[in-house]
Amino acid sequence: MWQEFKKFAVKGNALDMAVGIIVGAAFGTIVTSLVGDIIMPPIGLVLGNIDFKNLFIVIKHGTQPGDYPTIEAAQQLGAVTINYGRFINNIISFLIVSFSVFMLIKLIGTLKKEEVPAAPATKECPYCTTKIAIKAIKCPSCTADLK
Predict the structure, then answer these.
(1) 145: which residues sit within 8 A by CB, 6+ positions away?
(2) What gap in Å lies between CA 22 and CA 28, rounded to an integer?
(3) Are 87 and 93 in contact (CB under 8 A)?
(4) Tens-digit pLDDT profile for residues 25-57
(5) Which residue in 71, 124, 129, 137 has a CA-CA distance of 20 to 30 Å to 42?
(6) Which of these, 90, 70, 88, 92, lies nearest to 79 by C-alpha position?
């Protein structure tokens, strides 16, 4: 069983998958930063200084009822919240990651695309082996019919 596991673990597919997971996790942190630090602040500014990370609805007040300035403050006081601002951030992150992966796959597809060889312009007469035009119906050398 150990030998089978070793064969599986060092196969190219398993190693490729491991590298993909590690790179994907790193890419995820970059996208999270892109959304939270670069994209959402201008959107929040345009929408009237809204900080999407702290958009939430209190569905049950904690030990001290009232307005809570942040989600963390509400949760520390035992409030139950629906954090729809974080959900919006996650949706935007998902869309960016999905689009990035789509573009990456599309780029790889264009790089991998092999040139299709051009259709042959000539063919060989089966009777005299002379090269003739592909559309020829009669061999110019031996006058054989090429149907």
Answers:
(1) 137, 138
(2) 10
(3) no
(4) 888 888 878 877 888 788 878 878 777 778 899
(5) 71
(6) 70
